[in-house]
Amino acid sequence: MEERTMTINSILTKAGLYIPVIFTPFLIPFETLLALFMFSYLRIMPWQYKVIVLSIVFCFTILLPVLFFYLSRALYSSSRKMLSVRKKHALSSLPVIISYTFCFYTMKQMNIPRYMTAIVLVSLSIIVVSFCFNLKWRLSGRMASIGSIIGELISFSTLFGYNPVWWLCLFILVSGVLGTCGIIFRRHSMWEIPAGFAVGLTFSLLMLYPNPLNNFLFQIFF
Asked: What keywords sit in the KW lines (predicted)?
């Protein structure tokens, strides 16, 4: 009985360490576009075009934020120690917001299809909302990411006409694992988990799922 309990705890610990890495908010735009280019009809696009789009998204949403993060740690390591955890998260989010904004407008200027550009806009909106919440609370960024993925699955199934049931089952299961790990390891409180999921799901549906508000938002941003 004790061995079984230790095995379960070991599995939960490994899941809590490795699964959240895959669903880090920074990776979601790149992972989503990569999945679209591999598993949807977009795979027939020229590989040069796909490489250009993925390179832009990778540089602005992953490479630059990581460089900003390590550069700020190197330059302001002594002053950062005096800040609270929430203020550290808030300060680290500012360069990410700037980088995502440049990514969005770069893709817009290159006339990349708006459903691709909207993926970056969804992530940017989630990061901005999380930044505002994190000034006082600590919204779950990874639950927001998995919520946005589920919203994107629903939206793209309508746009591209495919059945997303099995993918939805998979990611709903993953969201349960992520939320459970967040509570078990005391990274977030009970309400911060569903709040993060709701933010991600809401913004992805608002900006990607065909609806009147979606058209209004595109007129503003595009």
From this structure: Membrane, Transmembrane, Transmembrane helix
Q: Are 129 and 9 in contact (CB under 8 A)?
A: no
Residues 60, 66: Cα–Cα separation, whole Å: 10
Q: What are the pLDDT digits (tens) for 90-99?
A: 667 788 888 9
Q: What is the 3-state secondary structure (H, E, C) of the chain?
A: CHHHHHHHHHHHHHHHHHHHHHCCHHHHHHHHHHHHHHHCHHHHCCHHHHHHHHHHHHHHHHHHHHHHHHHHHHHCHHHHCCCCHHHHHHHHHHHHHHHHHHHHHHHHHCCCCHHHHHHHHHHHHHHHHHHHHHCCCCCCHHHHHHHHHHHHHHHHHHHHCCCCHHHHHHHHHHHHHHHHHHHHCCCCCCCHHHHHHHHHHHHHHHHHCCCHHHHHHHHHHC
* Residues 131-187 pLDDT 10s: 887 777 777 778 888 899 999 999 888 888 888 888 899 888 888 888 877 777 777
CA-nearest of 58, 130, 68, 56 to 96 is 68
> How crowded is residue 8: how many other Cβ atoms within 10 Å of its Cβ?
10
- What pTM was estimated for this model as a whole? 0.82
Rg (CA), the chain: 18
Place of tokens 């006339």: 111
